[in-house]
Design brief:
single chain; Peptide Methionine Sulfoxide Reductase, Chain A; two-stranded antiparallel sheet; 6-stranded mixed beta sheet
Length: 174
């Protein structure tokens, strides 16, 4: 069962929001988890950094487009820092696993942090270095600029809200 979302119904200053893109296996769980981080204004699931425009789920899963299931996270940096968001992200993924999270396997389930500006890359590099120190070696998490992001089909948006018993590799606890 999903915990309540402290951001639901909260108003945010749209002009102040920042955006980061996180791939952590199946996007249903990553979206539900990140949506519940205080200071996150909006999440959108989609497909990042693949070889085609406007792919469908079937394209990504069966046609080798190279996209990663990714969550666009819009957040208020006055309420939550990018560093804190990334630390939370690392708490729910296996950063050493290649193309696999939970029961999901395939290139579309790889892990990654995709940024749109160099300032975010510098923050991410700091978090990655700390995580590598904890893990004792290099991570299997991509750190790349966002090339493109295509919104996934509507039935994937807030999937676990619509399907509370749906599959999720992330354990939300009681």
């Amino acid at each position: 069962m999903l915990p309540s979302n402290p951001n639901k119904g909260k108003e945010f200053n749209a002009a102040a929001l920042r955006t980061i893109y996180l791939a952590g296996g199946c996007f249903w769980g990553v979206e539900a988890f990140m949506a519940r981080v205080p200071g996150v204004a909006k999440t959108v699931v989609g497909y990042a950094n693949g070889s085609t425009e406007n792919p469908t789920y079937d394209d990504v899963k069966y046609r080798g487009t190279g996209h990663a299931e990714t969550v666009e996270v819009r957040y208020d940096p006055q309420q939550v820092s990018l560093e804190a968001l990334l630390e939370r992200f690392f708490s729910v993924i296996d950063p050493l696993s290649v193309n696999k999270q939970g029961e999901d396997e395939g290139v579309q389930y790889r892990t990654g942090v995709y940024y749109t500006n160099g300032e975010d890359r510098a923050v991410a590099e700091k978090v990655f270095a700390a995580e590598e120190g904890k893990r004792g070696g290099p991570l299997a998490v991509e750190l790349l600029p966002l090339v493109r992001f295509d919104r996934a089909e509507e039935y994937h948006q807030e999937y676990l809200e619509k399907n509370p018993n749906g599959y999720c590799h992330i354990h939300f606890g009681a």
